[in-house]
Specification:
Mitochondrial transcription termination factor family protein; MTERF_sf; transit peptide; transcription termination; elongated
Length: 156
């Protein structure tokens, strides 16, 4: 029943041309129509996003993060997440931790994007406390404070 509610919300008020524009936005990233429908079936919210939002999130995931377009088929929720409030800050945090050798090689970034805030901070703290050396503490504290600052904006 939950799927049906989400599907109705996603397509309510959407005309055929809007649906087709969103499908074409996904196709521009190499997804087939079948893959797009699988993503919709997993999480209809991926069609509630605007065409511009679809393009921006896909650009970020593929061109900036080096992930595969097919990731959206497995994790369509990523499209509905905020670039400015979740995806970019978490990517920066994970990249910083990786640059300091504080993230395990098998760490799967898309999982971190989907974690609720508390779980993300907990999992990050586990990596930090288990692998951190004293020289990084000040820089890491500064970065966490910056990412949690509501006035912080990457798009300046």
């Amino acid at each position: 029943m939950e799927f049906m509610n989400q599907a109705v919300l996603a397509i309510r008020g959407m005309n055929k041309s809007t649906w087709e524009r969103k499908v074409n936005a996904y196709k521009r990233w190499g997804l087939s129509e079948d893959e797009i429908l699988v993503a919709f079936a997993k999480n209809p919210c991926c069609f509630r996003a605007s065409e511009d939002k679809i393009m921006m999130v896909m650009d970020f995931l593929i061109n900036k993060m080096g992930l595969e377009a097919s990731l959206i088929v497995k994790r369509p929720t990523l499209i509905s997440l905020s670039l400015e409030k979740r995806l970019i800050p978490r990517a920066l945090a994970i990249q910083f931790l990786r640059s300091k050798g504080l993230v395990k090689k098998n760490f799967y970034l898309p999982t971190a994007f989907e974690y609720v805030e508390e779980l993300f901070l907990q999992s990050s703290a586990i990596y930090i406390t288990s692998m951190l050396n004293e020289s990084c503490c000040g820089v890491l504290n500064m970065m966490w404070n910056l990412l949690n600052d509501p006035t912080f904006c990457l798009a300046k």
